[in-house]
Every structure is written in structure tokens, then in C-alpha cells.
Q: What sequence folds into this?
């Protein structure tokens, strides 16, 4: 894939919130998760984990924890990407909190793009009650859920969301 194709690949990703009833196979899910194997990670501490949720009852609980967001109920798979504070804080102390959040966010991004590359759709979901999600998934104390990445088969929207011109994000040398 050349740079032009890569830009096109990124431009054709969109959040999808309606999924067909088709399940993803275990191999398909493993393929998405595998994408995150080589993410950059602070000090190579790999301070992230993922809980693969396919159980319908647990998906329903996660939807409830996310203020009844319907796409979480519908998607056949939710990848709950988590920061693992122990792995990073054991080396970096307080700074490790930020590194774990960054590691996990990059991992979630790779999985989102891995799903896109495989022809599946996703919706990055950040609005949820962390305590409830932790309870539903029996997460240990040092694991913080950051992203509920809904994944499945759906249709891309007919048009893509607007963005600010990139120049509005960019500052040269100083702000
Ligand atoms: C940090 C973050 C949190 C988000 N939380 C939600 C959410 O709770 N529910 C939802 O439907 N979409 C959520 N989204 C998806 C955004 O709404 C979406 O990415 C944005 O509107 C741009 O649309 P696009 O992804 O189709 O380009 C979230 C995205 C990010 C990066």
C-alpha cells in the first residue's frame, strides 16, 4: 500500500452504529486483536489489555453501563480496551498512569483500523460509567476500561462526518 492508498484507507473509515445480526468468527476477532501486537508502548511495558465480549447478556450490561447506547447491544463483539496501571506504574510511578492510557488508546486505534482493513465496522465508544463496566467485567483494581470498541458487520454511511481544516490544528514552532 502506498501513501496515497493509505490516506484513502483512513478516509473511508467511519463510526458505524447499526450492525447486522451476523456474528464475527473467533478467527475474525483474533485477527482484529492481533493488529495491536506491535503498537508502540512506553518503555515497551505494553500497559494495555483487552476483554473480548461476545456474550449477549454481557453486551446488554455494557450497553446499560453506556447509558443504553443501542449499538453496543447490537454489535456482535465489543472489545473493551483497558489501561493496565501496574505494568507501567511499576516502572514510571505516577507518570505511568498517562503512559498506560496512551498505550491502551493506541492499541484501540490499531484494532479499530485493523477491523476496517478486514472490512468490518466499528464504533469507538467512550461514554460509559467506568465503575459499572469494571463491575460487569470483574476487572481488577489496577485495570481501567477506556474504550468500548463495538465491532461487527454494518454499512458505512453514505457520507462522512465533517472535519475542521487540518490547518486549524496546526501550530508552527510555537503556539
Ligand atoms: C474518545 C471518543 C469517544 C467517543 N464516544 C462515543 C460514544 O460514546 N458513542 C458514540 O456513538 N460514538 C462515540 N465516539 C465516536 C465519535 O462520535 C466519532 O468518531 C465522531 O463523531 C467522528 O465520526 P467518524 O468516526 O464517523 O469519523 C467517540 C469517539 C472518540 C474518539
A:
Amino acid at each position: 500500500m502506498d501513501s496515497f492508498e493509505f490516506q484513502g484507507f483512513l478516509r473511508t473509515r467511519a463510526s458505524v452504529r447499526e450492525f447486522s445480526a451476523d456474528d464475527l468468527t473467533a478467527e475474525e476477532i483474533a485477527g482484529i486483536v492481533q493488529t495491536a501486537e506491535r503498537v508502540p508502548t512506553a518503555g515497551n511495558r505494553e500497559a494495555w489489555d483487552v476483554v473480548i465480549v461476545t456474550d449477549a447478556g454481557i453486551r446488554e450490561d455494557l450497553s446499560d453501563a453506556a447509558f443504553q447506547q443501542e449499538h453496543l447491544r447490537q454489535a456482535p463483539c465489543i472489545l473493551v480496551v483497558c489501561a493496565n496501571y501496574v505494568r507501567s506504574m511499576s516502572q514510571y510511578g505516577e507518570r505511568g498512569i498517562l503512559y498506560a492510557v496512551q498505550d491502551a488508546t493506541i492499541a484501540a486505534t490499531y484494532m479499530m483500523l485493523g477491523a476496517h482493513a478486514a472490512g468490518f465496522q466499528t464504533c469507538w465508544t467512550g461514554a460509559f460509567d467506568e465503575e459499572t463496566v469494571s463491575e460487569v467485567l470483574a476487572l481488577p483494581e489496577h485495570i481501567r476500561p477506556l474504550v468500548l470498541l463495538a465491532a461487527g458487520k454494518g454499512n458505512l454511511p453514505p457520507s462522512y462526518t465533517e472535519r475542521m481544516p487540518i490547518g486549524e490544528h496546526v501550530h508552527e514552532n510555537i503556539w
